[in-house]
Structures are given as structure tokens and as C-alpha cells.
Amino acid sequence: MTALGNSRYKVSHLACTQAGLLKQVDEIQPDIIVIDIESPNRDMLESLHTISHYNPKPVVMFSSQQDTETINLSVQSGVSAYVVGDIDPERVKPILDAAVARFKAFHKLKNELDDTKHQLESRKSIDLAKRLLMKTNKMSEEQAFHSMRKTAMDTGQKLEDVAKTIVSMLRSLEQGHEHD
């Protein structure tokens, strides 16, 4: 790709279509994947989806296929930029730059969302453990939380893990009493 001549992008490998995309990406570990294809097929899209899920990388696809369904399937499979038609070599670098920036922004948001979901789940576990302690041990909310926090500090565990253990233990005790 002479269009990348003096840019920060260096082409380290030109993949052939006969070899599997997954295998080549796994062996080479590229920073960005650039695909020039007339029309992406189902196998390629499945491979891109797998890469996107297990080893995400920015993917730029140059294609002559311009139907909306193919574009949507490509983007859902992890393509960061889908460019239709002949491309002016001067535009290649800015397209790659935009795709990398979009990829980074998307993954930053995804990581923030994952962190938020984890914090919410953690909060739910802690609240449930507090309620169960309050109910079974006739504690106030403050006493239940202090008890869990002390256990976490004494055992070197996260508060969330202590809460999950408490919930599990108290639920199994409740089930044991139901069978009596």
C-alpha cells in the first residue's frame, strides 16, 4: 500500500484470501486490520466477529459492496470503518486515523459501561447481604454494613466477595430450615 508511504502505518503483512483470517491475525498480531475486498463473505464476517469479541482491533474495510445490509453486518462484526468504492490514496491515512480513533473511543465507552455494570452488580450484592443480615441477625443497616466491612478487612477480601459469601450462606441456611 503505497498510500501509507510516509505515515505512521507500516504494512507488515499482506494476507492472502486462501489462509484463514483468524489464523493470520493470531500469528501476526497486527495493530490494525485493513481489508480490501469486493464483497465480504459470511466466513470473513464471522472471523471478524470472533476477533472483535476475543482480540479486538481496529478494522478498516474497503469494498465495492454498498448495500445497507452488508455494511450493517460488517459493522456488527467489528469493522470500524467501511469505505465503498475506489479510494484516493491521499484519503487512506485519514481513514485509518479516524478508524483507530473511533475504535479507541468505542472501547473506552465499552470498558466504562462494563465497569458501571460491575459496580451496579456489586452494589446489589452488598445491599442484598445487608438486608439478609438485618433480617436474620436483627441488625441495623449500619451494623450490617460495618460487620461486612470488618469481615472484608480481616480476611483481605473485597466487600463484594464477602457479600456474595454471606448471601450464599444465609440462603443455604434458609433452605436447610425449610426442609426441617
Automatic annotation (TrEMBL):
Keyword vocabulary terms for this entry: Phosphoprotein
Organism field: Paraglaciecola agarilytica NO2
Protein name from the UniProt record: Response regulator NasT
Domain Response regulatory residue range list: 1-100
Domain ANTAR per the UniProt entry, residue ranges: 106-167
Pfam families: ANTAR, Response_reg
UniProt modified residues of type 4-aspartylphosphate: 36
Gene: nasT
Top-level taxon in the UniProt lineage: Bacteria
